[in-house]
Amino acid sequence: MTPTRTRPRGRALALLGVAAGLTGLLAAPSGPAPSSLDAVPAAAAAENTATVYYWTKTRNWSAYNLHYAPDGGSWTAVPGTAMEPACTDWVKKTVSLGSAAGLQATFNNGTGTWDNNGGKNYALGTGSITVKDGAVAHSDPCADTPPPASNKATVYYSSASLGWSTVNVHYQPTGGAWTAVPGLGMTAACTGWWKRELDLSTATSLKAAFNNGNGVWDNNGGSDYTIGTGTSTVRDRVVTANATDPCAATPPDTQAPTAPARVTASADGVSVLLFWDAATDDRGVTKYQVTRTGGSTGTVVTDVGSTVFSDTNLAERTAYTYTVKAVDAAGNVSAASAPATATTGDRPTAPANGKPLGTDPRKDPIYFVLTARFYDGDASNNRGGSQHVKSGNAANDDPMFRGDFKGLVQKLDYIKGLGFSAVWVTPVVLNRSDYDYHGYHGYDFYKVDPRLESAGASYQDLIDAAHAKGMKIYQDVVYNHSSRWGAKGLFTPTVYGVRDTQWSWYYDEKQPGFEYDGLTVDPKSGKSYYNGDLWSTAEPTGNTCVNWGKPTGGKSAEGYTVYNCQWPSPTSGMFPKGLYHQCWIGNWEGEDSRSCWLHEDLADFDTEKATVQNYLIGAYNKYIDMGVDGFRVDTAVHIPRTTWNRRFLPAIQERVAQRHGAEAAKNFFVFGEVAAFVNDKWNRGSVNHSAQFYTWKERKEYDADDTKAALEMYDYEQQQGTGNQPTSTNAFLDGNSYHAPDHSRFSGMNVIDMRMHMNFGDAQNAFSNGKDSDDSYNDATYNVVYVDSHDYGPNKSSERYTGGTDAWAENMSLMWTFRGIPTLYYGSEIEFQKGAKIDCGPSCPLATTGRAYYGDHVAGTVTASDFSKVSAASGQVATTLQQPLVKHVQRLNEIRRAIPALQTGQYSTEGISGGMAFKRRYTSGSTDSFALVTVSGGATYNGIPNGTYTDAVTGDVRTVTNGTLSVGAPGKGNLRVYVLNGPGKIGTAGPYLK
Predict the structure, then answer these.
(1) Any idea where the Fibronectin type-III domain is (predicted)?
(2) Where are the beta strands (DSSP E) in 519-578?
(3) What's the pLDDT score for residue 352?
(4) Omega of the bond prior to 726 within 30 degrees of 0, cis?
(5) What is residue 895's predicted lDDT score, i.e. its pLDDT?
(6) How far apart are CA 716 and CA 734, in angstroms?
(7) Which sign does the torsion angle of CA 701, 705, 710, 714 carry?
(8) What is the pLDDT of residue 353?
(9) 143 vs 89, 90, 139, 677, CA distance in Å?
(10) CB contact set of 553 (below 8 Å; sequence gap of 6+)
(11) pLDDT of res. 313
């Protein structure tokens, strides 16, 4: 994360208004409550009246006033009283005369023009009187005119998102009075819709609020709804005027989608990658049919759910032709696209793709490594980059790219010996920036960074080696952004540069035929970070950057002239609008956090565009095919949930199922970073920026256009607020019983438990906050739980955790027994770099940070005979393996692996007294695992099943006959795990578990 830039944002300000209206469904209606009935007046003496009609056609005034005096009475104040429309060409006014039998009258337009009957005034009597061009008569000129028709409004109201069983409409015609609370009952029109025809008299619009008859109101956030005549619908706070009847029978869909456009095919070895633009349909495209011809297999048709398709294992040096058709839900099929052809090459010599292990990810504790900083197995691929000297890394002989896959393969037994069966590796794609060892500045998403690979130690070799040891590989992936230099194959910017006396040191000479890969050294410049392909002095064809090459008036740190378009920027016009966003983020909890750049090194993809989606889906299909076991998704919160749910998550599932089978797809583990650095259940009240929000599918339909849908979803969910989000019991026991979880509304993305992470300064706080949030996740048993990481420590600390060894032991004991998947950042098992600043970029040496090189601590040899079991070790790694927290985590992994309830069980604190105390159970087939856990403190468990319980830590046996078990406090960092019909003591006593 980068510091927030402060700048006014209209949309962010508008959202304050939205937030202010979140209580609208609970507020009282804005229309006035009706007063009590007026008292009936006493009988009064009869009085005379006169209704005076005045002819308007001759005068054609804009206003008419009657100035009069009852016989024997006083005149009204000038200009008199206003007259009102009566019927065509007539106005009228009814006046009270008391006991008088007539009146004197004159007429005027209110601005000095009078008709006073030639100075004599008009002498009028009682009853209906007409005055037309000086003539007086006793009649009602409008008597034969039919009364004007009353205006009507037919209102349909949708309660689908509210679940109301009764709906009333409380309304006020413009200029009229409100109905009595709660208003008029609406009638059920069709599923989810209610209807009422309202009489507006002469009014042409009304104000309305709706309620369920039990005090719950929808008054449009306090603003009421404005509705006109005719048919209108009100759905999810949106009024649609002149609407069609939402309950009318839907005509059958006979319209086919448009044909997919711009189909492109490119070959890579014996694979062909296909992209195309999304087809359109009046009701939505559900799938595509890809038809392949060529080779010896004849015509092959494959159904695809996205707009990208990777066809693999084809014949060598063979031409294939592809066409694509779109299909809608009714089965209508579009015309075929224009054909696209690609010719395969030779079969690559790389090892065959692997296959994911495909087991429940909750069984696998995770060890998180920054690959480039873990262990150096091949010094020939080490690279320091442009900041090697400036950072201080050179002085320490510590190039930023130092660790590699070869080193990781060599130390898999160290990780397995700790007891971990999953390894989370930082992004593997080719990066390009000044300081890119961490992997989050992707440049070529289709290429593994050569600075990580070696002969015999490719990425595929790492995956295969891990699988051979029963260990999984979780790959860190980035969908939100590319490097500042764009994404090769999609768009790479060209900046202004000039090799003059000031800048020749910075801009490398162009070397035709030389291609940047981060590893190969350009022979001319002597750099592996060559930039000769990134700049131009002449304005390139198609340039969109504003004021190309003109001096800005500013100076660089060296005092050199700075030019426009000299550096990638979202606001310069350099990046195409169809691929990248064009703004800087202003509000981390605003809509712009999903649609603007986070940092100058992170060029923000427009992930709602099909071309971008195709590029990313195609890239990550490659790694799925290699057999990785899951994806950790970086910056997931900065992409709208609708885009995840519509595009990326289904594409992942489809590809895994296609390549590796349904069981592998079910257990392919996707967990997202939805960064919320607060202690709240919901991130500052914003559901769209909260981790649990991303675990759910959408609950309503949005526009077919992904950009529009993202905004619609954002506004709708913000209006629904935190009190109207879905909830789940998937993580909780029903009493003492396990129940089958309901994952029907699961999005496909699990998340890092940011709330526990934020509160791990104290284990009790982490436990309490975790419990408080668990009903809002689809299934919190899949939450990834860690204390600190490569970004932050607890409470958004910028240092690696420094709470002390006892506190670490207590945190670990909680993580390994509570719901969720325990995860450890490399080196935490020895409190590596505790208190060190986690990251300072190139402003300080890496050796002084939380991303220091770990290799010195694992130098030597190590052999693991099983998880948590080291059969042999020599050198420094042998010393490392003797550290107290190493012993602690080894045994925690051993205990967790032996007790299914601690891996996949639901939990409850019902009937339990104590601090960090809970019960967990998992039941499936012949497995029934029930465990009582207390961390550090004592506990009493009431209402538990009777039977024999054995503590997995000490082997202590208790027989319960009255449903109650009390356990003494084991001490800080220690714990007790009493298992019903358990296996007995697991492992040997250590510094904490004893």
Answers:
(1) 256-347
(2) 535-536, 551-555, 561-563
(3) 64
(4) no
(5) 98
(6) 33
(7) negative
(8) 75
(9) 14, 12, 9, 75
(10) none
(11) 86
pLDDT value of residue 14: 32
How many whole angstroms separate alpha carbon 319 and alpha carbon 249?
49
Residue 102 backbone dihedrals phi, psi, to 5 degrees = -175, -175
Cα separation, 480 vs 635, whole angstroms: 6
Task: Tell me the CA distances in angstroms from 629 to 212, 356, 829, one per residue in order.
Answer: 49, 5, 24
Please give the distance of CA 263 from its chain centroid, rounded to a whole number: 30
3-state secondary structure of 52: strand
* Residue 378: C-alpha distances to residues 316, 404, 407 (Å): 33, 7, 7
The span from the CA of 529 to the CA of 597, in Å, is: 24
CA distance 138 to 129: 4
pLDDT for residue 3: 35
- Dihedrals φ, ψ of 153, to 5°? -130, 125
- Tally of CB atoms within 10 A around 210: 30
- The enclosing H or E element of 211 equals strand 205-211
818 Ramachandran zone, left/alpha/beta (phi>0; psi -120 to 50): beta
CA-based nearest residue to 529, from 388, 426, 427, 391:
388
Output the CA angle 590-591-592, nearest 5 degrees.
Answer: 90
Low-confidence ranges of the chain (pLDDT < 70): 1-46, 147-148, 349-352
The helices-and-strands tally (H runs, E runs) of the chain is 16, 52
Q: Which amino acid is at 810?
A: E
Residue 11: per-residue pLDDT: 30
Which residue in 279, 249, 209, 254 sits closest to 25, CA to CA? Answer: 209
How far is residue 727's CA from residue 736's CA, in Å, rounded to a whole number? 20
To which residue do tokens 């969908």 refer?
Answer: 479
Q: What confidence score (pLDDT) does residue 771 get?
A: 96
Q: Is 10 exposed, middle or buried (0-12, 13-18, 19+ CB in 10 A)?
A: exposed
Query: Pairing mode, if any, of strands 495-496 and 442-448?
Result: unpaired
Peptide linkage before 182 cis (omega within 30 of 0): yes
Q: What single DSSP character describes residue 753?
A: -
Write the CA distances from 685 to 586, 688, 783, integer angstroms: 18, 9, 21
785: number of Cβ within 10 Å: 23
pLDDT value of position 130:
93
DSSP assignment of 599-618, as one string?
A: BTTBEEB-TTSHHHHHHHHH
The pair of structure tokens assigned to 100 is: 């008088």
* SS3 readout for 440-499: CCEEEEEEECCCCCECCECHHHHHHHHHHCCCEEEEEEECCEEECCEECCCECCCEECCC
Distance (Å, whole) CA 719 – CA 704: 21
- In this structure, the number of other CB atoms found within 10 A of the CB of residue 673 comes to 23
Rounded Cα gap, residues 812 and 975, in angstroms = 10
Three-class DSSP labels, 929-968: EEEEEEEEEEEEEECCCCEEEEECCCCCEEEECCCEEEEC
Beta-carbon-side half-sphere exposure of residue 156 (alpha carbons within 13 Å): 21
Alpha-carbon distance of 804 to 348, in angstroms, equals: 51
**What one-character DSSP code corresponds to residue 647?**
I
Q: Edge-to-edge strands of the sheet including 238-240?
A: 187-190, 193-201, 151-158, 230-235, 238-240
